[in-house]
Design brief:
heterodimer, A: mainly alpha, Rna Polymerase Sigma Factor, Chain: A, Arc Repressor Mutant, subunit A, 9 helices, B: mainly alpha
């Protein structure tokens, strides 16, 4: 059982227990953040790099974190921004094609290269289909479907109105339904 | 891993009859990854605090140890030298560097700007004055026609007029001026003169 966020912050803000507080924070949020990142960057090594950068930013920025904000949404915001920045950098390096459709294709190729890939499994089919969504719909769908994030929290993470997020999610679900039925 | 009721309800409303997979991810993670991650990240975070900033330059050994004392010594010797210069100023005039007034240094750009402005204004004035001079020349005595002849003191007509003027009283002259002087503005047409 992980401690409450308020306890983690209290530990972190006391110099004697700062390291303990940070380690507890990493233990609590490592898996949800890792999977959130991994769904976007696909590759484990890339997800590990991005996750480490996220926690280093958290370590440096936690002193300025205002407790009236939600720690959970703050962490997701950093993880989302870091993941999108990583994808942008890859695009500039030419490792990922600038065309959004081709970005999806590259991710699909990475998935198919996974030794555990099984094209008959519905979970893999869904992952392949998600990669064909536009970037924003992809992030919104992942946060809602896998992390079960509420629209209010999602609007804090993505700095977008709840109405726009609902519309994005609905569009994404409809598109995925169509793609999955076809496959 | 199944979805919560809220998410399932939403999916059923949007896509009735559709079977959605669970929330579990098909991706694999290396064994022991999450067990070791907190310690690894905490270590990196602490190292980032103590990590020296990489600078590509080198500094001689002991440079920073002696730097403060060197600076203090130089400052003290400079102050001492200045004091000596002040006391021996009259006898050693010219031995120290030339002192330029701060006001003079600050005023120099303004003085240069004023000088340049003056040159431009004077040039513009001379240029326009030269053009005006051309007009004035066209109205000089030599260019006037016979109907505007200037009378010289040697001229007979001038002498005759002077003689007649002397015989007039002041009252007569004033009355003449009052009766014949107009205050209306007359438009001057230089072409008519030429």
């Amino acid at each position: 059982m992980h401690p409450e966020d308020s306890v983690l912050l209290q530990w972190y803000n006391t110099s004697a227990s700062r390291e303990k507080g940070f380690t507890a924070l990493v233990s609590k949020y490592q898996q949800p953040l890792y999977w959130h990142i991994r769904r976007m960057v696909i590759n484990h090594a890339d997800a590990d790099d991005v996750l480490q950068n996220v926690f280093l930013k958290v370590w440096k920025g936690l002193a300025n974190f205002r407790e009236e904000s939600n720690l959970y949404t703050w962490l997701y915001r950093i993880a989302t921004n870091e993941s999108l920045s990583f994808i942008e950098k890859e695009k500039r390096r030419g490792l990922v094609n600038l065309d959004e459709e081709v970005v999806g294709t590259t991710a699909q190729q990475q998935m198919k290269a996974d030794p555990h890939f099984d094209e008959k499994k519905l979970e893999w089919k869904l992952q392949l289909a998600i990669q064909q969504l536009p970037e924003k719909q992809r992030v919104v769908f992942n946060l809602r479907y896998f992390d079960e994030m509420g629209y209010r929290e999602m609007s804090e993470v993505l700095q977008t109105s709840e109405g726009a997020l609902k519309a994005s999610y609905h569009h994404a679900v409809k598109k995925l339904e169509e793609m999955l039925r076809e496959s | 891993m199944r979805h919560s009721t809220e998410i399932e309800k939403e999916l059923n409303e949007l896509t009735p009859g559709m079977v959605w997979p669970g929330r579990e991810m098909p991706f694999h993670v290396p064994a022991g990854y999450f067990e070791n991650l907190p310690a690894r990240i905490s270590e990196d975070a602490l190292l980032s605090l103590n990590k020296p900033i990489d600078v590509p330059y080198e500094v001689p050994d002991g440079y920073f140890d002696q730097l403060s004392s060197q600076i203090v010594n130089r400052a003290l010797s400079a102050a001492e030298g200045e004091q000596n210069n002040t006391s021996n100023n009259s006898s050693q005039e010219g031995s120290s560097g030339k002192i330029i007034s701060l006001f003079f240094r600050k005023a120099m750009p303004y003085a240069a700007a004023a000088l340049l402005g003056g040159i431009l204004v004077t040039g513009a004035f001379l240029f326009t004055d030269q053009r005006a001079g051309i007009n004035r020349e066209s109205f000089s005595a030599g260019n006037l026609t016979a109907s505007h002849t200037i009378l010289s003191p040697d001229n007979e007509l001038y002498k005759d007029i002077s003689f007649k003027m002397q015989s007039l009283s002041d009252d007569e002259i004033n009355r003449y001026l009052e009766e014949n002087t107009s205050t209306e503005t007359v438009e001057w047409q230089p072409e008519e003169i030429n």
